[in-house]
Amino acid sequence: MEETNKKEEYLKERYTLAMERIHGIIQEETVPAPFCVYFKKISEFLIQVEELWTKLRVGEMKNYTLEQWQELNHKMYEDILPEHYDVSYGNPDYAVAELGEVHGKLLSFLYTELRALLVYAFEGQLEESVVCLELFIEVYNRFEADEIPEYKEIQQIIYWFVSDYSELFVTRRIQESIDPDLDFAAKIIMESDLNDLRYLYQYGEYVSENEFKMAEFLNTLSEDEIAAMADTYTEGYRIGFVLGGKDLSIKRTVNIRYQLGFERMIRRAIRNFEKMGLRPVIYRAAVSTLNKRQNLRIGYVGASANPQFDYDHRADNALYLDKKFIERKLGVMRTAYEKWKQLAAWHAGPAVVETFGEAPFVPEAKETACCLSEKQEKLMVSFANESAQLTNQYIIGKERSFTIIAFPLPEIGPQFEEIFKETVKINTLDYMMYRDLQQKLIDALDQGVMVHIKGRDGNRTELTVALHEMTDPSKQTLFENCVADVNIPVGEVFTSPKLAGTNGILHVKQVYLGELNYIDLQVNFENGHVVSYSCSNFETEEENKKYFFENVMYHHDTLPLGEFAIGTNTVAYAMAKKYQIADKLPILIAEKMGPHFAIGDTCYSWSEDTAVYNPDGKEIIARDNEVSILRKEDPSKAYFGCHTDITIPYEEIGCIEVLCADGRRIPLIENGRFVLPGTEKLNEALDEIS
């Protein structure tokens, strides 16, 4: 305790000295234009954060009115909001235009990293705050020299910052992911008066109308309605362990991910999980470059103040990424997991609440944004493989599970409440009916050696998917009968296909993957591997390929087809058509609205050796493919750390048919309608919109 107090006092002293220096920068003219303007602007921001830190620590903001909280929240994120982004140093275009090509990217990176101080203030992370302030001062001091510093000088300051402090930032992130005692968010959820919407602003996240109106709306629902939402979510999680043959009783924590505004549901879910013996682990989406994964936000989140800002800085690690840094980060991860190996062993996996309904985001590609070199791309692939293996060593894949459920946001439009109720209906569809209907599809698919998929009406799909062989069809099956457990809502049958013999073209006119829009997307497969791809988002072929390479291929030269599935949730499809929201649905629901194909790992990655059974008692044997089986020799060759579903909507399907060894063809879908005997009921929802 005495040592902790000494460290705290030492950090406070460093913080005080740093802020004294930053206050001085406001008054100085020792840095030449245009850099002087930049450093003064950032200093003003840091002084505002200092004031925020003080108010939070002394409790002054407890008495803030709702309007005061809203004003503060807007001020915190004002500089990167779309209406101000053209003149923000967070915008690499503006930074390069104002500060020059040599320093623009570097100083835009620094600006972005310093914005994390807002979060550190709310969570009371003093050490993280101190080292960021000292980074800013060190860079400023170099610009005070007689000559403007070279690019390499500033780049090296940044490099040694991320290297030296990877132990601080990465270790903290590992602990956040498994330690329930880091309960900043859990306390807000469980201790706040959720009828008093001021609680939304206590996270320090950006709060838009979506979060505010969602919380407001959930407060109008009855306890029974909230229970139905939460119980579906938590029961799906529990059933995932049962169907996966995994022992939930040996686990003690669950990671809950959600968007602000859902606290009433999450509070009920936490109580449900507690009855299963699980405490919540709830961590914020990463704010430090050391822990971010491109522009993805993994954890609990508020609104994105500006998706373009997130996208512009998705590859900021290009400024420092090299082999030595990767080795350093992996070493820190291993040490952290070893320190908390018992917490890691107790961790059961994520329970995710996704949202949909935001205006679709189509990013602008900027030459001024950081970009990984080819060598760095390969390093990232290597790191993804090694870090996944490391995580699996401590949070054992075959012992963990997950669940995902999705709900619409108010931004979806004036019919939000109707769409929300329809979504709840979709999330609670008749489990038994879908189980039986889907079993008929599986019985037909199990007779085949291949499945042929062909598009229509401008869809160029012409693809043949190869299936595994069974040694005992009386006890074995190829496709999982997916009902409402880990993957809510109900509505798909899926398999890990054979790669050899899987060939052809996958095409879709428009699809959203990871919240990014793809127009006229085409992927070509040879023996189950991606050999080429294209889309029509940007003016040049090079930009289009780079877009797909970064955001779907995740810098891999090729990826296997990890999953083939047929979605059966025509009710969700009808809802999408009725309300014209197909472009806003998350992949979780969209994948149930037609056949889909996942590029990357199989659905069973890291747990292929765990037997999985369908409700009829048959074991699903198609858990591996020719790539994932390489885990027995070298796991780095078997896994890619990505799994991206691409769905073809029913309306673009000409046919899906099973090809049998004896020459028979069993049609499942023709011209967008189910034709296999016993599955016709799935067309009823389609009839309502035809």
What percentage of the residues does DSSP assign to strands (E)? 15-25%
Based on DSSP secondary structure assignment, what is the total number of beta strands?
A: 19
| Main sheet: strand order | 12-11-10-6-5-17-18-19
Number of helices: 23
Could you give a short account of the major beta sheet?
8 strands, antiparallel
Low-confidence stretches: none
Between the first and last Cα atoms, what is the distance in angstroms?
A: 70 Å
Provide a descriptive summary of the structure in words.
By secondary structure, this protein is an alpha+beta fold. 42% of the residues lie in helices and 17% in strands. It is built from 23 helices and 19 strands. The strands form four sheets. An eight-stranded antiparallel β-sheet has the order 12-11-10-6-5-17-18-19, covered by helices on one side. It is globular and about 85 Å long. The chain starts with a helix and ends with a helix.
Q: How would you sum up this structure in a few lines?
A:
This protein is α+β, with helices and mostly antiparallel strands and 690 residues long.
Tags for this entry?
690 residues; alpha+beta; eight-stranded antiparallel sheet; five-stranded antiparallel sheet; globular
